[in-house]
């Protein structure tokens, strides 16, 4: 047990290098922030980071009658992979990227179980009420329907939107 007297410095514990983390990734700013947070954690824990993109309707063009509908979706999916790679290119970590189709919370839970990850990292996208009603809240579903710990990273714009209120809460 470490000595926890005031001023004691705790040293981070590293894993044996076999630990894994999972981060859900999509086009939302909170998701991009989640990748960066997960990368810092992976580095601190000497863990492998798996970036998982779950393909959903947001990857497809709105106009379903377009002749190139699938082609445009494939381009969007490839673009998201490139964006994730750009976020991680200068990070000194081991990572991989995977794409699956399905319901985000279910797919994240399945992959987390299959990989036996330490925890799952997701962004709090602040989706609209309609989106939450039709697709559910991924962080809420993960935290209530599967056993792995879930780290929810706030949308970076949330501090600007609620900045004054947050400052009030922090200083009380």
Structural class: alpha/beta
Instruction: Indicate the proportion of strand residues.
Output: 15-25%
Q: Give the strand order of the largest sheet, numbering strands 1, 2, ... along the chain.
A: 3-2-1-4-5
Radius of gyration: 18 Å
Shape: globular
Q: What is the share of helical residues?
A: 40-55%
Mean pLDDT: 81
How far apart, in Å, are the first and last alpha carbons?
33 Å
Low-confidence stretches: 166-172
Could you give the order of the helices and strands?
EHEHEHEHHEHH
What is the overall number of helices?
A: 7
Structure explained in plain terms:
The structure is a single chain. The protein is of the alpha/beta class. It is built from 7 helices and 5 strands. It has a 5-stranded parallel sheet with strand order 3-2-1-4-5, with helices on both faces. Helix 3 (104-115) crosses helix 5 (138-145). The longest helix has 20 residues, at 69-88. The two termini are 33 Å apart.
């Amino acid at each position: 047990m470490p000595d926890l007297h005031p001023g004691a410095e705790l040293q981070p514990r590293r894993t044996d290098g076999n630990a894994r983390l999972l981060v859900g990734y999509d086009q939302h700013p909170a998701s991009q922030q989640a990748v960066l947070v997960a990368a810092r954690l992976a580095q601190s824990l000497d863990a492998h980071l798996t970036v998982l993109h779950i393909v959903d309707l947001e990857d497809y063009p709105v106009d379903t009658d377009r002749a190139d509908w699938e082609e445009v979706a494939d381009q969007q999916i490839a673009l998201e992979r490139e964006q994730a790679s750009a976020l991680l290119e200068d990070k000194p970590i081991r990572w991989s990227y995977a794409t699956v189709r399905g319901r985000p919370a279910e797919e994240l839970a399945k992959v987390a179980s299959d990989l036996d990850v330490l925890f799952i990292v997701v962004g709090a996208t602040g989706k609209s009420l309609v989106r939450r009603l039709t697709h559910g809240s991924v962080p809420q579903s993960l935290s209530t329907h599967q056993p792995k710990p879930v780290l929810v990273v706030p949308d970076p714009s949330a501090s600007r939107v609620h900045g004054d209120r947050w400052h009030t809460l922090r200083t009380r």
